[in-house]
Design a protein that fits this description.
63% helix, three-stranded antiparallel sheet, four-stranded antiparallel sheet, single chain, Serine Threonine Protein Phosphatase 5, Tetratricopeptide repeat, 698 residues
Length: 698
């Protein structure tokens, strides 16, 4: 398909793997170009640690290319040959680590005694959780771990609607770091394109094709074809020989379609029975008898690695009879079917009864243990998050989702972590990742008010305000008692100019048991009522709980309220409140809004010198509405007979006049969820006062 070079991407100064479709095939073979483009497009949609990421795609003349991450390592087909020659199935943990190091990092690294990351990864991965596995099990646990990682990556691709269709050892790379990564999406198709499949053409590598691929006729081929191909790869890692290999293509196709694979333990008796069972389930002729999803396969493989009971069960007597009959219908009809079936039913009933009791006990214990592990990983992720260790927090949440992919709390916290990372890094891909997590979570938990609220916040950060409103409304409908959705709805209503609706939403939040104790709910309600000059604002102040009364943001709003009341005693109250808010805002990073409000309170109490100091402090703190402190300075300096300076500040206020505020009548900012309103009428009134304070004609 192409030639791969290691190259330097000059703009970003990073090394990449550059895959090039040579000019001749590119110019003469439209199918090759289409496949090459499809490979790049499919892989570029996928962002997973187990899939080699695509950085760029393009065309230069008649040459097509795409750039991807450089992955140093070896494909599994090379590893299988090495393992077969090295008798790896009976290797100790140390010996296996040495073999992996030699294979992926190069023999020279291993002989020099360098401990590569591949060695440590293999060593830790192959060490059983119980600590009692024999030497022969070390390799097989490592195989199970590799296959579970590949299944995780496939499950992610399937969840994005991409089916690979060419999974084989050559397309699975073992990196030096010990990661399994999927390559070559040249035959990938979306699930919608595969609803009706090939008509007479064989796509994929013959030895690893599923029966439905091998038949090459109109029949359903879906994501389970990749599960089969991964199982064929696993079979080869367990036995060091292919599941099916005829003398020619026709014979191989016939075996894939009609013949059952030889159980791995008949080829290599030391293959663990559990892995044989898992492997044979992936190789079922009937796609419905395989694992339903790649995640189910990954989970069963991890159960084996962790020493837990697996879900897959060996094919019993009835199952073997059914398979036998399907392959030899004419012969089976001629045998004594009644007697044979009676014996089979009897044996199967005994087996099923005994197995069912054992399975029930094992599964209940496994479920309890899994829940405990998920809870521990969730707690660990939250701890790393609080310590701002984003990478380790993501690792803990990812491990928890591997055990329980549909866990509401893990998905919600993981999405919230991505949102917090976005606030720091400003990388829009983090919001996309958060949205993907939330979409999956809401498919499973559609009535979670918390998940809908997080999604609404993510959509708002993406600038999708109508979609954000719909998300919060769905959350409020699903769980009306969850107050944050009502607060978020009010914030969006305020942004859109629906202030009466915003007040109504906040009144609903304040009436809820949890909302009645939240500072933000009371603050936003008071902010909206204050901006609307509603008399209910005073009533709201009287109803404030102690927690809100002690809050610095609420204290600042109360100061603003008393400044608007404009009585002498009100001005004194405003000054006391603004001073209190200033004290609690800290000394290093003074809040510009606090300083501005304090300056206005000093002005109304005719403390001219103090008003000047606080207004200048507001400007130094970066007041985004600079015209406001300039007008306070103009009025104050005019009262002190510094007319020239007053005129200068009035001029600067006019120069800095906010056009957007004039157009809309008001602006609302919501830092940290707390609303703050800027009023064009209030600012214009202050300008009139400044002009009157300065001598006529100024």
């Amino acid at each position: 398909m192409g030639v791969v070079y290691e190259a330097l991407q000059v703009k970003l100064n990073r090394h990449v793997a550059l895959k090039i479709l040579p000019a001749m095939p590119g110019a003469t073979n439209l199918d090759a170009v289409a496949r090459f483009r499809r490979e790049a497009t499919a892989a570029a949609k996928l962002h997973h640690s187990g899939i080699v990421p695509i950085y760029d795609f393009g065309q230069s003349g008649h040459t097509y290319y795409y750039a991807m991450e450089v992955v140093h390592g070896r494909p599994l087909n090379e590893m299988i040959h090495r393992f077969s020659d090295a008798n790896v199935a009976s290797a100790s943990q140390t010996r296996l680590a040495e073999l992996l190091s030699q294979a992926t990092a190069g023999k020279q690294d291993a002989s020099n005694g360098t401990t590569s990351s591949a060695v440590s990864s293999a060593s830790s991965a192959s060490h059983p959780s119980s600590g009692s596995a024999s030497r022969g099990r070390v390799y097989y646990r490592q195989v199970a771990r590799w296959m579970s990682e590949a299944a995780d990556a496939l499950n992610y691709a399937h969840s994005q609607g991409i089916i690979h269709r060419d999974i084989k050892p050559g397309n699975l790379m073992l990196s030096r770091e010990g990661r399994i990564m999927i390559l070559d999406f040249g035959l990938a198709k979306s699930s919608s394109e595969l609803s009706v499949t090939m008509t007479g053409s064989l796509l994929g590598t013959l030895r690893y094709m599923s029966p439905e691929q091998a038949m090459a006729k109109r029949m359903k081929v879906d994501h389970r074809t990749d599960i089969y191909s991964l199982g064929a790869t696993m079979y080869e890692l367990l036995t060091f020989q292919p599941a099916f290999q005829g003398r020619d293509e026709k014979e191989t196709l016939g075996q894939i379609i009609t013949k059952e694979p030889t159980p791995p333990r008949k080829i290599a008796s030391h293959v663990p029975r559990e892995l044989e069972t898992i492997c044979l389930k992936t190789l079922e002729k009937d796609a419905g008898a395989r694992y339903a999803t790649a995640q189910d396969l990954a989970d069963d493989l991890r159960r084996y690695v962790q020493g837990l009971p697996i879900v897959a069960r060996p094919v019993g007597p009835i199952g073997r009879v059914v398979k036998f009959v399907r392959r030899r219908r004419a012969f089976s009809a001629a045998v004594c079917a009644t007697v044979f079936l009676a014996i089979s039913v009897f044996l199967a009933a005994r087996y099923q009864r005994r197995a069912s009791l054992e399975r029930q006990g094992h599964q209940e214990a496994a479920i309890r243990e899994r829940a405990q592990r998920v809870e521990a990983l969730l707690s660990k992720g939250i701890m790393f998050w609080q310590n701002r260790n984003w990478l380790r927090a993501e690792g803990a949440f990812t491990d928890a989702l591997r055990l329980d992919p549909d866990n509401e709390r893990v998905l919600g916290n993981f999405a919230s972590l991505k949102r917090i990372e976005y606030a720091i890094q400003r990388d829009p891909r983090l919001l996309d990742e958060a949205k993907d997590l939330l979409d999956h979570a809401l498919d499973v938990h559609p009535n979670s008010g918390k998940l809908w609220n997080i999604k609404g916040v993510v959509l708002r950060l993406q600038g999708q305000l109508p979609e954000a409103m719909k998300a919060h409304q769905r959350g409020a409908k699903a769980n009306p008692e969850y107050y944050p959705n009502w607060v978020s709805i009010a914030n969006l209503q305020a942004r859109l100019g629906h202030l009466d609706q915003a007040e109504s939403s906040l009144l609903k939040a304040v009436a809820l048991p949890d909302g009645a104790n939240e500072v933000m709910v009371w603050y936003n309600l008071l902010a909206v009522q204050l901006h609307l000059s509603k008399p209910q604002a005073l009533d709201t102040v009287q109803r404030l709980p102690d927690k809100a009364n002690r809050s610095s943001p609420v204290t600042l709003l109360k100061a603003k309220l008393y400044l608007q009341l404009a009585g002498h005693e009100d001005f004194k109250k405003a000054l006391r409140l603004a001073t209190s808010a200033d004290v609690h805002s800290g000394s290093k990073h003074k809040n510009a809004l606090v300083k501005r409000t304090l300056a206005l309170a000093e002005l109304r109490n005719e403390n001219w010198a103090e008003a000047v100091d606080e207004a200048e402090a507001a400007l130094d703190a970066g007041d985004t509405l600079a015209a406001y402190p300039h007008l306070i300075l103009a009025i104050t300096l005019a009262h002190q007979d510094h007319t020239d300076q007053a005129r200068e500040h009035l001029r600067q206020a006019r120069d800095d006049w906010p056009a957007a505020l004039e157009r809309s009548g008001y602006l609302v900012t919501i830092p940290g969820g707390y609303m703050w309103f800027e009023s064009a009428a209030e600012l214009a009134k202050l300008r009139t006062e400044a002009e009157a304070a300065i001598a006529p004609g100024s």
